[in-house]
Amino acid sequence: MVSKTRALVSVLALFIVVYSSGCTSFGGQATGSGQGVAIDSFESDFQKIYAGETFKLQMRMTNLGSVDAANAYPKLYNIASNTGGNNLEITCDPTCGQGFNLLAPNAERGTTGESRICIWNCKAPLNIPKGLSVNFNPSVRLYYWYATHTIKSINLVSQNELRSIQSQGKSLPSETVSTSSGPVSLDVVVNGPIRYWEGESKVTFPININIANSGGGVTCITNDIIVPIPNGLPLLTTGPLAFDYASMTAGCEKASNWNKVNLYFTPDDTSINLKCNDMGTNAVELWKGQSTTVTCTVEMPVPTASTGFVQKNLKFSIQYAYFVDSAASVEVIGK
Fold this sequence. Notes:
Low-confidence stretches: 1-33, 236-240
Distance between the termini: 54 Å
Mean pLDDT: 80
Number of helices: 3
Helix content: under 10%
Shape: elongated
Strand content: over 45%
Radius of gyration: 26 Å
Protein backbone atom coordinates (compact mmCIF):
# COMPACT_ATOMS: atom_id res chain seq x y z
CA MET A 1 0.00 0.00 0.00
CA VAL A 2 2.91 2.33 0.65
CA SER A 3 3.99 1.89 -2.98
CA LYS A 4 0.51 2.82 -4.17
CA THR A 5 0.56 6.03 -2.12
CA ARG A 6 4.05 6.86 -3.37
CA ALA A 7 2.89 6.32 -6.94
CA LEU A 8 0.07 8.80 -6.44
CA VAL A 9 2.42 11.34 -4.92
CA SER A 10 4.86 10.87 -7.81
CA VAL A 11 2.16 11.65 -10.34
CA LEU A 12 1.36 14.90 -8.56
CA ALA A 13 5.04 15.75 -8.19
CA LEU A 14 5.46 15.55 -11.96
CA PHE A 15 2.68 18.06 -12.52
CA ILE A 16 4.04 21.24 -14.13
CA VAL A 17 2.30 24.55 -13.64
CA VAL A 18 1.32 25.63 -17.12
CA TYR A 19 -0.53 28.83 -17.84
CA SER A 20 -3.01 28.62 -20.71
CA SER A 21 -5.59 31.05 -22.07
CA GLY A 22 -8.97 31.20 -20.40
CA CYS A 23 -10.52 32.04 -17.05
CA THR A 24 -9.06 31.15 -13.69
CA SER A 25 -9.77 27.45 -13.11
CA PHE A 26 -11.33 26.36 -9.83
CA GLY A 27 -12.38 22.82 -10.83
CA GLY A 28 -11.05 19.30 -10.46
CA GLN A 29 -11.96 15.69 -10.92
CA ALA A 30 -12.09 12.52 -8.89
CA THR A 31 -10.80 9.10 -9.91
CA GLY A 32 -11.30 5.62 -8.52
CA SER A 33 -13.94 2.92 -8.38
CA GLY A 34 -14.29 -0.61 -7.06
CA GLN A 35 -15.71 -2.60 -4.19
CA GLY A 36 -12.76 -4.25 -2.46
CA VAL A 37 -12.82 -8.04 -2.12
CA ALA A 38 -15.97 -9.61 -3.57
CA ILE A 39 -17.38 -13.07 -2.99
CA ASP A 40 -17.93 -14.22 -6.57
CA SER A 41 -19.66 -17.44 -5.61
CA PHE A 42 -20.47 -19.55 -2.56
CA GLU A 43 -22.30 -22.83 -3.18
CA SER A 44 -22.53 -26.55 -2.50
CA ASP A 45 -21.43 -29.03 -5.14
CA PHE A 46 -24.78 -30.81 -4.60
CA GLN A 47 -28.12 -29.17 -3.86
CA LYS A 48 -29.53 -32.39 -2.34
CA ILE A 49 -27.51 -34.90 -0.35
CA TYR A 50 -28.31 -37.91 1.84
CA ALA A 51 -27.76 -38.18 5.57
CA GLY A 52 -24.13 -39.02 6.31
CA GLU A 53 -23.03 -38.19 2.78
CA THR A 54 -19.98 -36.04 2.10
CA PHE A 55 -20.08 -32.92 -0.05
CA LYS A 56 -18.16 -29.72 -0.63
CA LEU A 57 -18.87 -26.05 0.05
CA GLN A 58 -16.96 -23.89 -2.41
CA MET A 59 -16.21 -20.17 -2.42
CA ARG A 60 -14.43 -17.97 -4.94
CA MET A 61 -13.28 -14.44 -4.03
CA THR A 62 -11.56 -11.66 -6.02
CA ASN A 63 -9.92 -8.37 -5.06
CA LEU A 64 -11.65 -5.74 -7.23
CA GLY A 65 -10.27 -2.67 -5.47
CA SER A 66 -6.96 -0.92 -6.14
CA VAL A 67 -5.27 -1.77 -2.82
CA ASP A 68 -3.91 -5.14 -1.68
CA ALA A 69 -6.16 -6.87 0.86
CA ALA A 70 -4.51 -8.20 4.01
CA ASN A 71 -5.44 -10.93 6.50
CA ALA A 72 -8.34 -12.31 4.47
CA TYR A 73 -10.18 -14.97 6.47
CA PRO A 74 -13.40 -16.77 5.42
CA LYS A 75 -15.38 -18.28 8.31
CA LEU A 76 -18.41 -20.60 8.13
CA TYR A 77 -21.58 -19.90 10.09
CA ASN A 78 -25.08 -21.33 10.35
CA ILE A 79 -24.28 -24.99 9.75
CA ALA A 80 -26.48 -26.31 12.56
CA SER A 81 -30.22 -26.91 12.68
CA ASN A 82 -32.54 -28.00 15.49
CA THR A 83 -35.38 -30.24 14.28
CA GLY A 84 -37.78 -32.04 16.63
CA GLY A 85 -35.45 -31.54 19.58
CA ASN A 86 -32.52 -33.15 17.74
CA ASN A 87 -29.36 -31.15 17.31
CA LEU A 88 -28.30 -31.58 13.72
CA GLU A 89 -25.06 -30.18 12.46
CA ILE A 90 -23.04 -30.27 9.28
CA THR A 91 -19.35 -30.82 9.99
CA CYS A 92 -16.78 -29.14 7.74
CA ASP A 93 -13.00 -29.12 7.47
CA PRO A 94 -11.46 -26.14 5.64
CA THR A 95 -8.77 -26.58 3.00
CA CYS A 96 -8.28 -22.82 2.59
CA GLY A 97 -5.56 -20.92 4.41
CA GLN A 98 -6.28 -18.24 6.97
CA GLY A 99 -4.96 -14.70 7.09
CA PHE A 100 -3.82 -14.60 3.44
CA ASN A 101 -3.33 -11.54 1.22
CA LEU A 102 -4.98 -10.77 -2.12
CA LEU A 103 -3.16 -8.59 -4.64
CA ALA A 104 -5.01 -5.68 -6.24
CA PRO A 105 -5.45 -5.24 -10.02
CA ASN A 106 -2.62 -3.45 -11.80
CA ALA A 107 -3.91 -1.43 -14.75
CA GLU A 108 -0.40 -0.46 -15.85
CA ARG A 109 0.62 -4.12 -16.11
CA GLY A 110 -2.75 -5.28 -17.42
CA THR A 111 -3.36 -7.73 -14.58
CA THR A 112 -6.64 -8.35 -12.78
CA GLY A 113 -7.07 -8.60 -9.03
CA GLU A 114 -6.02 -11.81 -7.34
CA SER A 115 -8.64 -14.54 -6.96
CA ARG A 116 -8.68 -17.44 -4.56
CA ILE A 117 -10.85 -20.54 -4.16
CA CYS A 118 -11.68 -21.93 -0.73
CA ILE A 119 -13.22 -25.39 -0.29
CA TRP A 120 -14.69 -26.97 2.83
CA ASN A 121 -14.98 -30.78 2.94
CA CYS A 122 -18.29 -31.35 4.71
CA LYS A 123 -20.40 -34.23 5.95
CA ALA A 124 -24.16 -34.21 6.44
CA PRO A 125 -25.58 -35.34 9.82
CA LEU A 126 -26.56 -39.01 10.13
CA ASN A 127 -29.53 -38.81 12.50
CA ILE A 128 -32.25 -37.84 10.04
CA PRO A 129 -35.02 -40.47 9.75
CA LYS A 130 -36.00 -41.86 6.39
CA GLY A 131 -38.83 -39.90 4.78
CA LEU A 132 -37.74 -36.60 6.31
CA SER A 133 -35.48 -33.89 5.00
CA VAL A 134 -33.80 -30.90 6.62
CA ASN A 135 -32.82 -27.69 4.87
CA PHE A 136 -29.53 -26.06 5.84
CA ASN A 137 -28.43 -22.58 4.84
CA PRO A 138 -24.69 -22.43 5.53
CA SER A 139 -23.21 -18.98 5.23
CA VAL A 140 -19.70 -17.62 4.93
CA ARG A 141 -18.41 -14.35 6.31
CA LEU A 142 -15.27 -13.08 4.60
CA TYR A 143 -13.14 -10.81 6.79
CA TYR A 144 -10.24 -8.77 5.42
CA TRP A 145 -8.18 -5.64 6.11
CA TYR A 146 -8.24 -2.74 3.67
CA ALA A 147 -7.36 0.93 3.24
CA THR A 148 -8.43 3.83 1.04
CA HIS A 149 -6.04 6.67 0.15
CA THR A 150 -6.91 10.12 -1.21
CA ILE A 151 -4.80 13.08 -2.28
CA LYS A 152 -6.49 16.46 -2.73
CA SER A 153 -4.45 19.23 -4.41
CA ILE A 154 -5.29 22.87 -3.69
CA ASN A 155 -3.97 26.16 -5.04
CA LEU A 156 -2.75 28.75 -2.54
CA VAL A 157 -2.41 32.15 -4.23
CA SER A 158 -2.01 35.76 -3.17
CA GLN A 159 -4.64 38.37 -3.99
CA ASN A 160 -2.23 40.29 -6.23
CA GLU A 161 -1.07 37.16 -8.03
CA LEU A 162 -4.64 36.08 -8.71
CA ARG A 163 -5.50 39.53 -10.02
CA SER A 164 -2.48 39.39 -12.35
CA ILE A 165 -3.37 35.93 -13.66
CA GLN A 166 -6.95 36.94 -14.38
CA SER A 167 -5.94 40.19 -16.13
CA GLN A 168 -3.65 38.23 -18.47
CA GLY A 169 -6.39 35.72 -19.31
CA LYS A 170 -4.36 32.87 -17.85
CA SER A 171 -5.42 30.08 -15.50
CA LEU A 172 -4.26 28.22 -12.46
CA PRO A 173 -3.55 24.47 -12.69
CA SER A 174 -6.49 22.19 -11.98
CA GLU A 175 -7.18 21.19 -8.42
CA THR A 176 -7.58 17.42 -8.47
CA VAL A 177 -8.62 14.57 -6.24
CA SER A 178 -6.84 11.26 -6.74
CA THR A 179 -8.18 8.32 -4.75
CA SER A 180 -7.72 4.58 -4.52
CA SER A 181 -10.76 2.33 -4.86
CA GLY A 182 -12.25 -0.01 -2.30
CA PRO A 183 -15.41 -0.83 -0.37
CA VAL A 184 -15.25 2.50 1.49
CA SER A 185 -14.75 5.74 -0.44
CA LEU A 186 -12.86 8.77 0.86
CA ASP A 187 -13.50 12.19 -0.67
CA VAL A 188 -11.93 15.48 0.41
CA VAL A 189 -13.93 18.59 -0.51
CA VAL A 190 -12.57 22.15 -0.56
CA ASN A 191 -13.01 24.69 -3.34
CA GLY A 192 -9.95 26.69 -4.27
CA PRO A 193 -7.99 28.66 -4.93
CA ILE A 194 -7.31 29.62 -1.33
CA ARG A 195 -6.66 33.36 -1.52
CA TYR A 196 -4.54 35.31 0.94
CA TRP A 197 -3.45 38.92 1.34
CA GLU A 198 0.14 40.18 1.32
CA GLY A 199 1.44 40.51 4.83
CA GLU A 200 -0.43 37.47 6.15
CA SER A 201 1.69 34.69 7.61
CA LYS A 202 -0.89 31.88 7.39
CA VAL A 203 -4.31 31.01 6.06
CA THR A 204 -7.08 28.95 7.66
CA PHE A 205 -9.93 27.30 5.78
CA PRO A 206 -12.49 24.51 6.33
CA ILE A 207 -12.63 21.16 4.52
CA ASN A 208 -15.13 18.30 4.39
CA ILE A 209 -13.95 14.69 4.55
CA ASN A 210 -16.72 12.48 3.14
CA ILE A 211 -16.58 8.77 3.96
CA ALA A 212 -19.08 6.35 2.39
CA ASN A 213 -19.51 2.57 2.60
CA SER A 214 -20.39 1.36 -0.90
CA GLY A 215 -19.12 -2.22 -0.75
CA GLY A 216 -22.26 -3.92 0.53
CA GLY A 217 -20.60 -5.10 3.73
CA VAL A 218 -19.72 -3.83 7.21
CA THR A 219 -16.67 -1.89 8.39
CA CYS A 220 -15.14 -2.56 11.78
CA ILE A 221 -12.11 -1.72 13.88
CA THR A 222 -10.70 -3.31 17.02
CA ASN A 223 -10.20 -1.49 20.28
CA ASP A 224 -6.45 -2.12 20.32
CA ILE A 225 -5.85 0.03 17.21
CA ILE A 226 -7.76 3.15 18.26
CA VAL A 227 -5.17 5.89 18.70
CA PRO A 228 -5.86 8.94 20.92
CA ILE A 229 -5.41 12.28 19.15
CA PRO A 230 -3.55 14.86 21.25
CA ASN A 231 -3.37 17.59 18.57
CA GLY A 232 -5.17 16.89 15.30
CA LEU A 233 -5.14 13.65 13.37
CA PRO A 234 -2.20 11.26 13.79
CA LEU A 235 0.19 11.03 10.87
CA LEU A 236 0.18 7.96 8.66
CA THR A 237 3.80 7.04 7.99
CA THR A 238 3.50 3.32 7.20
CA GLY A 239 1.20 0.90 5.43
CA PRO A 240 -1.70 -0.94 7.09
CA LEU A 241 -1.42 -1.51 10.81
CA ALA A 242 -0.03 -4.97 11.43
CA PHE A 243 -2.03 -7.46 13.45
CA ASP A 244 -3.03 -11.05 12.83
CA TYR A 245 -6.30 -12.22 11.30
CA ALA A 246 -7.43 -13.86 14.56
CA SER A 247 -7.30 -10.51 16.37
CA MET A 248 -9.10 -8.82 13.48
CA THR A 249 -11.85 -11.44 13.36
CA ALA A 250 -12.35 -11.42 17.13
CA GLY A 251 -12.66 -7.64 17.06
CA CYS A 252 -15.14 -7.70 14.19
CA GLU A 253 -17.35 -10.24 15.95
CA LYS A 254 -18.18 -7.53 18.50
CA ALA A 255 -21.03 -5.36 17.25
CA SER A 256 -19.66 -2.42 19.26
CA ASN A 257 -16.73 -2.28 16.81
CA TRP A 258 -18.89 -2.20 13.69
CA ASN A 259 -19.51 0.77 11.39
CA LYS A 260 -16.22 2.49 12.19
CA VAL A 261 -13.01 3.32 10.32
CA ASN A 262 -9.68 4.86 11.35
CA LEU A 263 -8.88 8.19 9.68
CA TYR A 264 -5.31 9.45 9.17
CA PHE A 265 -3.81 12.64 7.73
CA THR A 266 -0.36 13.04 6.19
CA PRO A 267 0.52 16.69 5.48
CA ASP A 268 2.56 17.85 2.49
CA ASP A 269 4.93 19.31 5.06
CA THR A 270 4.98 19.62 8.84
CA SER A 271 3.88 23.26 8.70
CA ILE A 272 0.33 22.20 7.70
CA ASN A 273 -2.00 21.61 10.64
CA LEU A 274 -5.40 19.90 10.63
CA LYS A 275 -7.89 20.39 13.45
CA CYS A 276 -11.00 18.26 13.85
CA ASN A 277 -12.60 19.46 17.06
CA ASP A 278 -15.22 16.72 17.42
CA MET A 279 -12.71 13.85 17.26
CA GLY A 280 -11.05 12.43 20.34
CA THR A 281 -9.45 9.47 18.54
CA ASN A 282 -8.78 8.58 14.95
CA ALA A 283 -11.91 6.38 14.94
CA VAL A 284 -14.79 7.71 12.85
CA GLU A 285 -18.29 6.25 13.09
CA LEU A 286 -20.48 5.89 10.01
CA TRP A 287 -24.12 6.90 10.32
CA LYS A 288 -26.16 3.67 10.10
CA GLY A 289 -23.03 2.03 8.76
CA GLN A 290 -23.27 3.97 5.50
CA SER A 291 -21.61 7.38 5.53
CA THR A 292 -20.43 10.38 7.49
CA THR A 293 -18.86 13.79 6.92
CA VAL A 294 -16.03 15.08 9.10
CA THR A 295 -15.51 18.84 9.00
CA CYS A 296 -12.02 20.04 9.83
CA THR A 297 -9.95 23.23 9.64
CA VAL A 298 -6.66 23.39 7.74
CA GLU A 299 -4.02 25.90 8.74
CA MET A 300 -0.96 26.46 6.55
CA PRO A 301 1.69 29.15 6.00
CA VAL A 302 1.50 31.36 2.93
CA PRO A 303 4.19 31.13 0.19
CA THR A 304 7.33 33.16 0.75
CA ALA A 305 8.42 33.04 -2.91
CA SER A 306 7.91 36.12 -5.08
CA THR A 307 5.39 34.36 -7.34
CA GLY A 308 2.81 34.28 -4.58
CA PHE A 309 1.53 30.92 -5.78
CA VAL A 310 1.94 27.31 -4.66
CA GLN A 311 0.02 24.05 -4.97
CA LYS A 312 -0.24 21.88 -1.87
CA ASN A 313 -1.38 18.28 -1.44
CA LEU A 314 -3.61 17.11 1.42
CA LYS A 315 -3.18 13.38 1.88
CA PHE A 316 -5.66 11.25 3.83
CA SER A 317 -6.11 7.54 4.48
CA ILE A 318 -8.73 5.41 6.15
CA GLN A 319 -7.92 1.94 7.44
CA TYR A 320 -10.50 -0.62 8.42
CA ALA A 321 -11.42 -4.26 8.62
CA TYR A 322 -14.33 -5.25 6.42
CA PHE A 323 -16.62 -8.24 6.11
CA VAL A 324 -19.13 -9.44 3.52
CA ASP A 325 -21.55 -12.38 3.69
CA SER A 326 -22.89 -14.98 1.31
CA ALA A 327 -25.21 -17.98 1.84
CA ALA A 328 -25.87 -21.33 0.16
CA SER A 329 -28.71 -23.86 0.39
CA VAL A 330 -28.38 -27.59 1.08
CA GLU A 331 -31.19 -30.14 1.55
CA VAL A 332 -30.24 -33.23 3.57
CA ILE A 333 -32.52 -36.24 2.96
CA GLY A 334 -32.93 -38.95 5.58
CA LYS A 335 -32.27 -42.58 4.68
